[in-house]
Amino acid sequence: MPFLILLLAVLALIGLISWAKVHPFLAFLLVSLGVGLALGLPTAKLLGAVSQGLGETLGSVLIVIVLGAMLGKIVAESGAAQQIAAALISAFGTRYIQWTLMVVGFIIGIPLFYNVGFVLMIPLIFSVVYKYKLPAVFVGLPMLAALSVMHGFLPPHPSPTALVAQFHADLGLTFCYGLLIAIPAIILAGPVYAHTLRNIVAVPLAGFVADTRPESALPGRLNSFLSSLLPVLLLAPVLGLQAVLPAGNAAAPVLTFLAEPVVAMLLSVGVATITLGTRQGKSLAAVMDAYSASVKDVALILLIIGGAGAFKQVLVASGISGAIAAGLLDTGVPPLLLGWLIAAAIRVSLGSATIAGLTAAGVMLPTMAQSHANPNLMVLSIGAGSLLLSHFNDAGFWLFKEYFNLSVRDTLRSWTVMETIVSVVGLAGVLLLDWLLPLM
C-alpha cells in the first residue's frame, strides 16, 4: 500500500506539472497534503510537517543559492564573463576552439546558473561561428555541455545545493568529487561527441550575435578570473588544510568557519561587489539593484525547492519513509544506481532536472540510514540521473532548438544525446568512485 500511494503521488506530480501546467510549488503542496491525508496523518501533524519541511529545506540552502545568484549577476553584468572568454580564445586560438569554449563554459558555469550562462554565452558562440565559418552545433555543444554538467552536478547550483542539505552531505567533498566526474563527462559529451555532428546544418539567427563591449570597458583579465572563481579559490585550500592537518589543531576553528559555504559565498560576493562593481565605475546602488534583480531570477526556484522539502517531510512524518526504505533495499538494486534510476524516470516524465533531483531525493532519503551509501555520491548520482534524455517536455530542449534554428530531429540527435551521455558518464563516475574510495 505505501508503494502504491507513493506511485500515485509521483504520477499526480507529473500530471499536475506536465499536463495541467500547475506551478511546481503548488503541485508539491497539493500532492504533499494528498499523501498525508491518504496515509491517515492528523491534519495538525500534516500541516506541521509541510511547514517544517519547507522551512528546514529553504533554511539550509537559501543563503547559498541567493549569494550564488548575486555573484553570477555581477560576473555577467560587469563583462567579466566576456573577458574570460576573450582571454581564453586569444590564448588558444581557433584550432582548439571547441576545447576553448568548453573551458569557458566550465569556468562560467561555476558561478552562473544554466539559463543565465546559456543566454550570456550564446552570442559568443554565434560570433565565433560567423567569424570563422564553423558549424554552429559543432562549436557550441561543448560549451553547453559544460554549463549543463555544472548545473546538474555542482553546488552552488540550486538542485545540488538542496541535495547536499537533504542528505547531510559535505558540500566541499561533493564539489571535489563532482569535479572529478564532471571533467570526463564534459569531454565525452562535448568535444568528442560533437565531432560526429559536423554535418548538421544550423543557421543561427544573426540577431543573436550581440555587440561586444570594447576591451576598455571590461574588467581586467586577472580580476575577471579571480573574482568569478573566488568561491573555489577560497574553499580549495581550506579543505586541503583540513585534510592534512591533525584533528584538534589550533587552526581548526578558523578553518571550520571558512569551510562553510555561506562564508565563502558571502566573502566572494563582498569582494566582487568591489572588484567588479564599484571599482569598475558602478555606484553601490547600481550593484545592489543588480543583486535585487538576481534574487527575482531565483525566487521561483526557491519555491520549488521549498515545496519539494514539504513533500519529503510528509513522507517522513507519515512513517511511509521506513516502508519505502525497506522495500527499496529489498529490491537488491544498489542505492546509488537506484537514486539515478528514480531521478532519470522523473526527468523523462517531467522534463525539469531540478524537480527530478528534488523528488528523487525525497524518495531516497529514507534509505540512506539503512544502506550506508555515501551521501556525497548520492547527490551526484541523483544529479546525473536528473539530466537524462532531455526531450520535448524540457524547456532547455526548446531553448537549444530555437536559438540554433534546428529541426526537431537534429535537436534530438545533438542536444538530447549530449545530455544522455552526460547522465550515463556521470553514473559511471559515481560507481567508480564508490568502488575506489574504500580502497584509499
TrEMBL record:
Q: Give the location in the cell.
A: Cell membrane
Assigned GO CC terms? plasma membrane
Sorted UniProt keywords? Cell membrane, Membrane, Transmembrane, Transmembrane helix, Transport
Please name one Pfam family that this protein belongs to: GntP_permease
Topology of the protein relative to the lipid bilayer? Multi-pass membrane protein
| InterPro entries with a match to the protein in the record | Glcn_transporter
Give the molecular function GO annotations.
Answer: gluconate transmembrane transporter activity
Which NCBIfam families does this entry report, sorted A to Z? gntP (TIGR00791)
Q: Which family is this protein grouped under? A: Belongs to the GntP permease family.
This protein is called what? Gluconate:H+ symporter
